[in-house]
Amino acid sequence: MKREILITSDGSTTINLPDLNEQYHSKNGSINESYHVFIESGLRQITSDKVSILEIGFGTGLNCFITYLEAKREIDYVGVEAYPVTEEEVEKMNFISVLKAEKEAAIFKEIHKVSWEEKNQISDIFSLTKRKQFFEDIEDKDAFNLIYFDAFGARVQPQLWTVEIFQKMFNSLKENGILVTYSAKGSVRRAMIEVGFTVERLPGPPGKREMLRAIKTVS
Fold first, then answer.
1. Which residues are paired to 149 by β-bridges?
2. Closest by Cα among 28, 26, 84 to 55
3. CA 155 from chain center: how many Å?
4. Which of 66, 101, 106, 123 has the fewest CB atoms nearer than 10 Å to its CB?
5. pLDDT tens-digit profile of 146-187?
6. Ordered structural domains, the chain, with CATH
């Protein structure tokens, strides 16, 4: 399938799949979307001293890298990706320059070069485990404070936005854990509610009216 590099509205890059009319990040701004959905609506809502994060769709590593940049406490980050991006594609991402994070350029390279299937200590307070895994095979239990749900959209991969998948997400979270996603589809919200999540509609990132935040509340 054809893959190409696209410049989004905030000047940052993404990977475009023209045959599917789908991108790894929003065309309205890769970095803007990451900050709005995953940092502001997710990471900054967690109050614990140590945060364990599961990312569904590690992709270009943008969410991981921005989380590293924003880390003010201990973070244990797990990124799941069935189809890792290529080294050539990573080199074409311009996140370092747009974020003005030249001092951390080596870290962005490191998160892509470290071994899969093992825990890697990226800094004193940030660890990264990359798992090459299909989302359907996730079996974690009560393990995470926060999930970044960043899979391709339901129009392209509806099987990733089902009751079965969100049951796995619910099981993976600790009590009062949070899942955030850019999606606001009614079918997605209903699937979340069916498995037990308390779901909020929030203002969306640029180009989207709404997004969803789901909380694991246990009665």
1. 56, 181
2. 84
3. 18
4. 106
5. 999 999 999 999 999 999 999 999 999 999 999 999 999 999
6. 31-86+103-216 (3.40.50.150)
Best CA proximity match to 77, nearest among 46, 33, 36, 32: 46
Tokens of 114: 């470290």
- Evaluate the CA torsion angle 191, 194, 197, 201 in order and state its sign: positive
Could you tell me whether strands 74-80 and 50-56 are parallel, antiparallel, or unpaired per DSSP bridges? Answer: parallel
**Residue 54 amino acid letter:** L
The backbone torsions φ and ψ at residue 121, rounded to the nearest 5 degrees and listed phi first, read -90, 105
Per the listing, tokens 């406490």 go with 73
- In the numeric block, which tokens belong to residue 198? 């308390």
Q: What is the distance between the alpha carbons of residues 66 and 132, in angstroms, rounded to a whole number?
A: 21
Identify each DSSP E strand in the chain by its residue range. 4-7, 13-17, 22-23, 50-56, 74-80, 119-121, 126-131, 144-149, 173-181, 197-203, 210-216
Distance in angstroms (rounded) separating the CA atoms of residues 209 and 205 = 7
Are 161 and 188 contacting, i.e. CB atoms less than 8 angstroms apart?
A: yes
DSSP 46: -
